[in-house]
Every structure is written in structure tokens, then in C-alpha cells.
Amino acid sequence: MKTKKLSLVVAACNNMGIGVDGKIPWTLRGDMKFFSRLTSGTEEEGKQNAVVMGRKTWFSIPDRFRPLPKRLNVVLSRNLTTPPEGAHHLAGSLEEAVKMLTETTVADTIDKVFIIGGNSVYKDALSHPCCHRVYLTRVYKDFHCDTFFPNMDDTFKLVSDPTIPSEMQEENGIEYKYEVYEKVA
Ligand SMILES: NC(=O)c1ccc[n+]([C@@H]2O[C@H](COP(=O)([O-])OP(=O)(O)OC[C@H]3O[C@@H](n4cnc5c(N)ncnc54)[C@H](OP(=O)(O)O)[C@@H]3O)[C@@H](O)[C@H]2O)c1
Questions:
Q1: Where are the domains of the chain?
Q2: C-alpha–C-alpha distance, residues 133 and 181, integer Å
């Protein structure tokens, strides 16, 4: 068994809000492309990455974009008994998903594992022993939100990654910036 590092990917506005009424409160095409490139890009040939998400995040993705292409889509639910239509796998907890992605035959087909929300899935992932990085798109604007990114404690340090654009981005009058945090302890 080979352990896999978990990376969280999130976009959050000034109050660390990530969603409202089951949707993301802003439209930033550049950030969507960044998300797609980051979560699809593999280093090991012949493998794909996995994206792990809560049931509500799955259903927040418009039908025509589900499953997220070229990635293994894993949905977490404590109540569903079969994967929602289009999803590749269902797991009853983050730990069950990680076990499936590291200890079963599925593991041989997977390069990286990305945790893509929402709130409680991020919370579990931040405290998971395999948690490695948080890719945070900081959106410098106030939006009304009902879902938030959990607090990152001071074991997460801002790092520079030459593969990630560091300059301020701007779209539709909204400024945003890509940040990478790494868990140091
Ligand atoms: N800005 C961003 O980067 C970003 C990213 C993702 C999502 N969002 C937004 O966030 C909102 C959705 O997030 P959310 O926090 O409300 O919901 P969510 O985490 O996506 O889904 C919650 C559901 O997922 C299942 N679940 C969550 N944690 C689980 C666990 N540890 N084990 C097993 N099942 C688990 C449960 O499903 P059951 O009830 O079926 O048991 C739970 O009711 C939407 O507004 C979406 O647009 C934003």
C-alpha cells in the first residue's frame, strides 16, 4: 500500500464563504480553468486523479459537467446506498474514500487525490494525517454565503509554488489570487 497525500482545493471570499443556496456565489472563469487544470493534471502516465466531494457539492455541479471529466469522481454520503448517477464511487466517510483510493485495486489507477468540498469534508481533510496542501483561491470581495471554509490552524504555512501564478488576477471587477498552504507538522 502506498499512502497518498491529500490536497484541498477551494475558493473563498473575504469572510471565507464558499457557497450560498447550493451554489458558488461568484463566477470566475479563470479560477474554474485553474481548478480544472490543477485537478486533472497528472505526473504518472496512464493514471488519473481522484476528486472527493460531499453529496451537496456533487449536486451543485451542473448536470452537463458531471462527472468532472478525466477524474475519478468520489461522492461522500452517510445516507445514499449507491453512487448518484454519473459518479464513479460512493463512500460513507473520508476515511473510507482514502482507504479505497490507497488500499484497493483502484489505487493503482490513481495519481493525486483532491478534496473539493464542502464544509465538513474540508474539515475532516484538514485534520487527516495525509493532509498535505490547501490550494486556496482568495476572492477579495464580500459575498453573502451560508457555507464557509473551516479555520486552518497555524500548522498550515503559506508556501510559494513556481507552477502556480502568484500575481493578482482580475475578472468582472473581482480581484482574486491563488495561494498554496502546506501542512508543516
Ligand atoms: N467555493 C468553493 O471552492 C466550493 C467548493 C465546494 C463546494 N462549494 C459550495 O459549498 C456548498 C456545498 O457544501 P456543503 O458544505 O453545504 O455540503 P457538502 O459537504 O458538499 O455535502 C454535505 C453532504 O455530504 C455528505 N458528507 C459530508 N461530509 C461527509 C463525511 N465526512 N462522510 C460522509 N458523508 C459526508 C453528507 O451527505 P448525506 O446527507 O447524503 O449523508 C452531507 O449532508 C455549495 O454551495 C457549493 O457550491 C464551494
A1: 6-174
A2: 6
